[in-house]
Write a structure and sequence with these properties.
Elements (H helix, E strand, L loop, with lengths): L2 E5 L19 H8 L3 E4 L1 H4 L9 E4 L3 H6 L3 E4 L6 H18 L1 E6 L10 E3 L7 E3 L3 H8 L3 E4 L3 H12 L2
Parallel strand pairs: 1-2, 1-5, 5-8
Antiparallel strand pairs: 3-4, 6-7
Length: about 160
Protein backbone atom coordinates (compact mmCIF):
# COMPACT_ATOMS: atom_id res chain seq x y z
CA UNK A 1 0.00 0.00 0.00
CA UNK A 2 1.49 3.31 -1.12
CA UNK A 3 1.99 6.09 1.41
CA UNK A 4 1.44 9.79 0.74
CA UNK A 5 3.45 12.76 2.04
CA UNK A 6 0.94 15.51 2.90
CA UNK A 7 1.49 19.12 3.94
CA UNK A 8 0.77 19.22 7.67
CA UNK A 9 -1.28 22.42 7.28
CA UNK A 10 -3.69 20.56 4.98
CA UNK A 11 -4.26 18.07 7.80
CA UNK A 12 -5.34 20.79 10.23
CA UNK A 13 -2.02 21.46 11.92
CA UNK A 14 -1.49 25.19 12.63
CA UNK A 15 1.99 25.40 11.06
CA UNK A 16 1.54 28.01 8.33
CA UNK A 17 3.48 31.27 8.45
CA UNK A 18 0.46 32.99 10.05
CA UNK A 19 -0.03 30.24 12.65
CA UNK A 20 -3.09 28.88 10.87
CA UNK A 21 -3.98 25.65 9.12
CA UNK A 22 -5.60 25.14 5.71
CA UNK A 23 -7.47 21.96 6.54
CA UNK A 24 -8.62 19.92 3.55
CA UNK A 25 -11.91 18.20 4.26
CA UNK A 26 -11.73 15.44 1.68
CA UNK A 27 -13.12 11.92 1.96
CA UNK A 28 -10.10 10.34 0.27
CA UNK A 29 -7.62 12.08 2.56
CA UNK A 30 -9.71 10.99 5.55
CA UNK A 31 -9.68 7.40 4.35
CA UNK A 32 -5.91 7.50 3.69
CA UNK A 33 -5.35 8.87 7.20
CA UNK A 34 -7.49 6.10 8.71
CA UNK A 35 -5.49 3.52 6.73
CA UNK A 36 -2.22 4.93 8.09
CA UNK A 37 -1.02 5.96 4.64
CA UNK A 38 -0.48 9.67 5.33
CA UNK A 39 2.89 11.10 6.32
CA UNK A 40 2.23 14.63 7.67
CA UNK A 41 5.09 17.05 7.08
CA UNK A 42 5.81 20.79 7.17
CA UNK A 43 9.13 21.55 5.48
CA UNK A 44 9.32 25.10 6.81
CA UNK A 45 8.91 24.10 10.45
CA UNK A 46 11.17 21.08 9.97
CA UNK A 47 13.75 23.38 8.40
CA UNK A 48 13.86 25.38 11.63
CA UNK A 49 11.42 28.25 11.03
CA UNK A 50 9.04 29.27 13.85
CA UNK A 51 5.25 29.50 13.90
CA UNK A 52 4.18 32.16 13.28
CA UNK A 53 6.92 33.49 11.01
CA UNK A 54 7.27 36.33 8.53
CA UNK A 55 5.93 35.53 5.07
CA UNK A 56 8.66 34.54 2.62
CA UNK A 57 8.86 34.46 -1.16
CA UNK A 58 11.35 33.19 -3.70
CA UNK A 59 13.28 36.03 -5.31
CA UNK A 60 14.99 35.48 -8.66
CA UNK A 61 13.24 32.34 -9.86
CA UNK A 62 11.42 29.38 -8.37
CA UNK A 63 12.30 26.37 -6.24
CA UNK A 64 14.36 24.87 -9.06
CA UNK A 65 16.51 28.00 -9.13
CA UNK A 66 16.84 27.95 -5.32
CA UNK A 67 18.15 24.38 -5.48
CA UNK A 68 20.55 25.42 -8.25
CA UNK A 69 21.80 28.34 -6.15
CA UNK A 70 20.56 31.09 -8.47
CA UNK A 71 17.54 32.29 -6.43
CA UNK A 72 16.96 32.99 -2.72
CA UNK A 73 14.05 32.81 -0.31
CA UNK A 74 13.59 36.11 1.51
CA UNK A 75 11.14 37.57 4.00
CA UNK A 76 9.44 40.86 3.24
CA UNK A 77 12.03 42.56 5.47
CA UNK A 78 14.83 41.04 3.39
CA UNK A 79 15.99 38.30 5.79
CA UNK A 80 17.48 35.37 3.86
CA UNK A 81 15.76 32.13 4.90
CA UNK A 82 17.00 30.07 1.96
CA UNK A 83 18.97 27.61 4.11
CA UNK A 84 15.88 26.76 6.20
CA UNK A 85 13.81 26.16 3.05
CA UNK A 86 16.47 23.94 1.49
CA UNK A 87 16.93 22.01 4.75
CA UNK A 88 13.17 21.54 5.04
CA UNK A 89 13.02 20.24 1.47
CA UNK A 90 15.80 17.73 2.20
CA UNK A 91 14.00 16.56 5.33
CA UNK A 92 10.74 16.21 3.38
CA UNK A 93 12.52 14.03 0.83
CA UNK A 94 14.03 11.98 3.67
CA UNK A 95 10.56 11.53 5.22
CA UNK A 96 9.10 10.47 1.87
CA UNK A 97 11.92 7.97 1.31
CA UNK A 98 11.73 6.56 4.85
CA UNK A 99 7.97 6.19 4.54
CA UNK A 100 8.05 4.79 1.02
CA UNK A 101 6.00 7.66 -0.41
CA UNK A 102 6.18 8.24 -4.15
CA UNK A 103 3.30 10.72 -4.03
CA UNK A 104 2.88 14.02 -2.18
CA UNK A 105 -0.06 16.37 -1.74
CA UNK A 106 1.28 19.81 -0.88
CA UNK A 107 -0.13 23.30 -0.26
CA UNK A 108 -0.38 25.29 -3.47
CA UNK A 109 1.18 28.74 -3.63
CA UNK A 110 3.70 28.11 -0.85
CA UNK A 111 7.39 28.94 -1.44
CA UNK A 112 8.06 25.40 -0.17
CA UNK A 113 5.13 23.40 -1.45
CA UNK A 114 3.69 25.17 -4.49
CA UNK A 115 3.46 22.77 -7.43
CA UNK A 116 1.86 24.99 -10.06
CA UNK A 117 2.36 28.52 -8.77
CA UNK A 118 4.32 30.55 -6.26
CA UNK A 119 4.32 34.24 -5.42
CA UNK A 120 6.43 36.54 -7.56
CA UNK A 121 9.06 37.55 -4.97
CA UNK A 122 7.86 41.15 -4.75
CA UNK A 123 5.32 40.59 -1.93
CA UNK A 124 2.70 42.04 -4.26
CA UNK A 125 0.17 39.21 -3.89
CA UNK A 126 0.80 38.22 -7.51
CA UNK A 127 1.41 34.58 -8.28
CA UNK A 128 3.46 33.19 -11.14
CA UNK A 129 3.94 29.69 -12.54
CA UNK A 130 6.61 27.74 -10.69
CA UNK A 131 7.54 25.18 -8.07
CA UNK A 132 8.32 25.73 -4.42
CA UNK A 133 11.64 24.46 -3.05
CA UNK A 134 10.28 21.22 -1.55
CA UNK A 135 8.21 20.43 -4.63
CA UNK A 136 11.25 20.98 -6.86
CA UNK A 137 13.40 18.59 -4.81
CA UNK A 138 10.69 15.94 -4.52
CA UNK A 139 9.97 16.04 -8.25
CA UNK A 140 13.69 15.87 -9.08
CA UNK A 141 13.88 12.79 -6.88
CA UNK A 142 10.93 10.95 -8.44
CA UNK A 143 8.15 11.87 -5.98
CA UNK A 144 5.09 13.08 -7.86
CA UNK A 145 3.57 16.22 -6.33
CA UNK A 146 -0.09 17.23 -6.45
CA UNK A 147 -1.82 20.18 -4.79
CA UNK A 148 -4.89 20.18 -2.54
CA UNK A 149 -7.18 20.66 -5.56
CA UNK A 150 -5.75 17.58 -7.31
CA UNK A 151 -6.60 14.89 -4.77
CA UNK A 152 -8.60 12.87 -7.30
CA UNK A 153 -5.65 13.00 -9.72
CA UNK A 154 -3.33 11.88 -6.90
CA UNK A 155 -5.68 8.95 -6.19
CA UNK A 156 -5.64 7.97 -9.85
CA UNK A 157 -1.85 8.10 -9.89
CA UNK A 158 -1.71 6.03 -6.68
CA UNK A 159 -3.85 3.37 -8.32
CA UNK A 160 -1.36 3.14 -11.21
CA UNK A 161 1.49 2.68 -8.72
CA UNK A 162 -0.43 -0.03 -6.85
CA UNK A 163 -1.64 -1.99 -9.87
CA UNK A 164 0.23 -5.23 -10.55
Amino acid sequence: MERILVSACLLGRPVRYDGAAKNVDDELVGRWRAEGRVIPFCPEVSGGLPVPRPPAEIVGGDGEAVLDGTARVLTGAGADVTAAFVQGARLALDAARRGGARVAILKEGSPSCGSLRIYDGRFSGTSIPGHGVTTALLERSGVRVFDEDQIDAAATYLRTLESP
